[in-house]
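User: quick one, fold this
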Amino acid sequence: MWHLGQNIKTKFSGKGLKKLFEKTAKAYRVSEFTKLFDEISTKKPSLATYLKNVSFAGWFRCHFHGNQYNIMTTNNSESLNQVFREAREWPIIPLLEEIITTLSRWFYERRTNANSCSTPLTVDAEDIMRQRYKKSRYMRVTPINLSEFHAKGEPLDGLVNIKEHSCTCREFYIDKIPCVHGVAATMYRGVDVYSLRSKFYMIEFWRMAYAESIYPLPPEIEWLLPEEVKSQVIIKPVKLIPPRRPKNK
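Assistant:
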């Protein structure tokens, strides 16, 4: 979605196209997506054609087949490559030491943050729940049976199934956190709203992710190398130097 948005900025002229594209990509309901995509087709037919040639499952939230958990992901290798943009020019041992030191610091900081958190959910998930709770107080809930409820308002109605953890707005199913309609239904039914979230949002799982410690590399004199490793002869790789000035010293 991010890369497509950048392409739209450079390839297509028109006010508000990128913002409209992002709104379309983040739509939960298929009906909402269809309405927004029709708007794109009206404003910029060439952009609609361009987007149709890209797999809808690759950038439309409502057409994605997996579980996104409302998290934007990127290639870890690209992120780490940027972090170690200077260290990657070093010899292999200092480079490894820099990677270990950085990861050890990250794990310590995030482990400290996780251990100091006192809420049932992670910080971001807790903020989402609080915002949805505030909105749910202005909704009207009509029970259909013991597990299904019709929640009206904000801005569209939703048919909630507490037993199946789903809602017609699809936020409950995609994000694995009760949507506004789901929160209103659980409050009406007297069910603990925290019991309907994915376990991966729980603070315990956040702490488990950084529970392990990363230790520094010991001095070379203390390395224990097997004989089959010591006996290997490592020769210098063949490297062809192009006939132009090198980019880096």
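User: anything notable?
Assistant: The two ends are 37 Å apart (CA to CA).
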